[in-house]
Design a protein that fits this description.
With 252 residues, the protein is α/β, with parallel strands linked by helices. 31% of the residues lie in helices and 23% in strands. It has one domain: P-loop containing nucleotide triphosphate hydrolases (Rossmann fold), CATH 3.40.50.300. Helix 4 crosses helix 5. The protein binds adenosine-5'-triphosphate and magnesium ion.
Amino acid sequence: MSLLDVRNVSYRFSDGTYALRNISLQVSEGEFIVISGKNGSGKTVFLRNLNGLYKPTEGEIIINGTSVVENPYKARKSVGLVFQDADSQIVGQTVSRDIAFGLENLKIPKNEIKTRVRQALETMNLEEHADQRARTLSGGEKRRLTIAGVAAMNPSILALDEPFTNLDYPGVLQLLRILVRLKETGHTILVVTHELDKVLAYADRLVLFDNGSIVANDKPEAAVLAAESCGVRLPRTENGTLDIGAMTWLKD
Ligand SMILES: Nc1ncnc2c1ncn2[C@@H]1O[C@H](COP(=O)(O)OP(=O)(O)OP(=O)(O)O)[C@@H](O)[C@H]1O
Ligand SMILES: [Mg+2]
């Protein structure tokens, strides 16, 4: 059974805009999936349907055997979504309080919260900012904070929406190392990005969105051939060939 089973999902906004058109996608536990597509192709709306923030107009989404619409609380626990816009995700006064907030909502015991907050600060290199007001962090630090907060909740599926935005070069490398470690420890990861050159080397699959539909869903070396027709830039080697294994900044 798939961990995530998206069945013929369409999503229409009240103004009539169809953001998703008959999307189907199955994801197994431990898969690392890169999702790409041009601006407005439906990627963010798709992620918001996964964790119950939006309800499909048609179709259904099953996570671990449970329908997201029937049990949105469980869906939010299962799918940790790191928003494209970090500001809208930060709720705590300080950096530590912000990470603790999500854990308190999950009713995790106080001692355990302390440990997880400490680990999250360390992993995302935010220890020196622990007591800083979260709103005063830089753009890249805010990005690291939102990733720390969601990863600390230990969701079954970690979904990151344009996680490389605002990160400097060391920040990108750090995030890639974290993603690789999460993948190696069996986590299921969805990364939405335009920047295939940073991360595609680690993907088990590449899914391309265009105009609300999935137009490619395959191993990266096969799906990547459709990227340019979907408005996604493809990095090529000097002789014009595609080298998926080189599409990561970790091997610079
Ligand atoms: N609240 C809304 N009301 C109406 N239309 C919306 C709303 N939110 C998003 N849309 C539309 O839905 C479509 C898909 O938007 P979505 O945010 O999923 O795109 P995206 O693929 O994430 O793009 P980007 O790469 O720019 O982040 C777009 O055409 C967008 O204008
Ligand atoms: Mg988006």
